[in-house]
Structure formats: C-alpha cells, structure tokens
Automatic annotation (TrEMBL):
InterPro entries for the chain: MFS (IPR011701), MFS_dom (IPR020846), MFS_Efflux_Transporters (IPR050189), MFS_trans_sf (IPR036259)
Keyword entries, A-Z: Cell membrane, Membrane, Transmembrane, Transmembrane helix
Organism: Paracoccus fistulariae
Residue ranges crossing the lipid bilayer per the database entry: 12-33, 53-72, 79-98, 104-126, 138-161, 167-186, 212-231, 251-271, 283-302, 308-329, 336-356, 368-388
All residue ranges annotated as the Major facilitator superfamily (MFS) profile domain in the record: 11-393
Membrane topology: Multi-pass membrane protein
Tree of life domain: Bacteria
Native organism taxonomy: Bacteria, Pseudomonadati, Pseudomonadota, Alphaproteobacteria, Rhodobacterales
Protein name: MFS transporter
Subcellular location(s) of the protein: Cell membrane
PROSITE patterns in the cross-refs: MFS (PS50850)
Amino acid sequence: MRSDRLLRDPRAWGLMLAATLTIMSNSTITPALPGLQARFADDPNAEVLTRLLITAPSLVVAIIAPFAGALTDRLGRRLPLFLGLLIYALAGTAGLYLNGLPAILASRLILGLGVAFVMTAQAALIGDYFQGAARGRLMGYQIAATNIGGLIFVTVAGYLAGLDPRWPFAIYGLAIIMFPFLWRMLPEPILAPGQTDLANPAALQAEPGWQATVAIMSAAAALTFVIFYAVPTQLPYHLRGLGITDPQKAGVAMASMMFAAALTSVVSGWIRPWLGRIGTPVTGYLLMAAGFATVAAGRSLGLEMVGMALIGGGIGMCMPTFITTALNVTPAHRRGLVSGLVTSAIFLGQFISPLASQPLVTHLGYSGAFHVGAAGYVTLAVLLVLVLKRKPRQQQPASAS
C-alpha cells in the first residue's frame, strides 16, 4: 500500500488523538469494577451502581449528542471540542477522590456530556477538513486509533486496578495532556455557518434526500451496536460456560476482535470506493454474521478467537461507513448536527444492547443468542441493500488526496 499523504497532515493526527479518548468513556474502568464493588461494599446498592458506572456515559451521549452537534454548527468546532475535553478530564478523574458510588455515578453522567461534545465536534471536523476518498480513509484510521487506544488503555487500567481500584480513573487525565497539542493541531475551519466550503465549494451541495440517508445510517448504526455489544456483555459468561474460566483468555479473545477491527477499518477507507456505500457495510455485516455464528458454534478458545476476529473485521468495515456516508451527503452547515445524530445512535445501541440480549440468553442460552445475532446481521445486510438501492448513487468529489 502506497504511502498516504493524509498521514502527513497534523490535523489528521489530532483527530485520531481525540478519537482515542472516546473509547475510554465506557471501557477504561471495566477491570476496576470488582474492586470498586468491594471498596464500597457498605453501600446496599453497590452491585447495581458499579455496573451502571459503565452504561451511564452511553445514555447521556445518546441524549445529548444531537444537541451538542447542533451547537457545533452554531458556535464553531473548537469551542465545543475543547470544552468537552475539559469536562472529560474533570469528570473522568473524579472517581479518584469522590467518597461514594452515587457521587461517582453522577460524575460518569457528566463524563457523557464531555464525550458527546468531543465526538460530535471531531466528527464534524473530519467533514470540514477533508473531502472525498480522503475523508473515508481518515474515518477508517480514526476507528483504528480507537481500537488501538482501547487495547492500550484497558491493559493499563487492568494493571492499575490491581494496585488500587480507583487508579484507572487517572487515565482520563490524558485529556489535559492532549489539550495543548490538539489546540495547535486542530484550527477552526475556514467555514462559517451557511457558507460554502472554501476547500471544496461543491461540498455544500447536499445529495437529494440527504435527510433520509442520514436517518438510514443512524438507524443502521443503532441496530448494529444493539447486536454488537452482546460481545463485551455476554462473551465472558459464554466462555465460562464452555469451561474457559481464565479472565485473561477472555481478554485475549477480545484483543483479537479489536486488532481485526483496527486492521479492517484502515483497509475500509481504501476499498470503499470500489465496494461503494452499499457494498462496504454489507460486507461488514456478513463478516459479523459469520463471526457470531462461529462464536455460537465454537467449543475451543481458538475457534472463539476466529469468531471474534471476524466480528472485529466486520465492525471495522461498518463503523467508518456510517459516519462517512452521512457526512458525504450532508451540507456543510449541518455536519455538526448529523455527526451528533449518528453518535447518538451508536451510544443508544450500546445502552439498549444488554436489555435486548439478556432475555435471549435467558430463553436460548448463550449459543442461541449468538445465533440470533448472526441472523440479525444477515437481515440488516438485506434491508440495507433494499433501502439504499432506492436512493440515487452518491457522487464523490474528484479529490482523493
């Protein structure tokens, strides 16, 4: 693969750095949950509250992201982005010193507010800074960055949680360290609300029916994550039922998924012009369907890792497509709102997922639930083909720098 000029642009690296923070909103403190429950064992609701620490930010992001996106269209991109970084750092690290689980839960809700501002502003900046194929490739690089960040941060959090269950909260302080670098790397785009994109005036021309395309991409993102999040919420218990009780082996299986997601998300930006906006997510859905079926049928760690890698490969194909397609069809002065809508859909799917998967597990068992997930992805692939075939083909800008 030839060297990508995009990676010589400091704005691209700034956006990828900002993206690594968002993966931490849920996953960083996961290794600390048992220790936190033991630390606050005198709280009669400790078992419930510690689990809510994981899902609380997702709920807030799902509610706030569209409004945060609309604000980025009115106020510019930098103010919401850097305000979000400050909220992220202050609320994220609050678990280091707060004295009770209810207070820590409140800080996690505030953290969701920061995540909503960061995610919507940086997604809108991708649409402002880059056009055409470069935009799609950067979205792929960004998803890769979030997966690599997840691997690093969760590994470090596991080590810190072994020392003290509060210490993983310190990782959120990275937002303060990144702040001055991002301040220099991410200038305000030369684009005022309602004006043309000076780098590419044609970018303001929205695709006919762009609102419907955005709605389709948002719905697809939400449904994708309703199914996908059965992996982190149910896989450890599925492995335990297979006799694979070592938590480190569950971590290895998850790592295989994240590595595959990082790899394919990079590749997706290069092959999307050939597969198109229909073929790319459909390929991802079929990979995830194969992965869920393999996980359901597997009886060894090796097969489970193969299934997880297929799931990771599929999500790596789908994730960049949802936001890229939505941004590509949207007028420049609505990119903040649209990035907020897609972000909201993703986090809403994450929040709903345990509520949807647990009844399936109860009635069908873990293998049965994963088989249903496989069938769900095949169904989504068919529906996406049928719906998007009815819409006019998107015209990509000629620039592919």
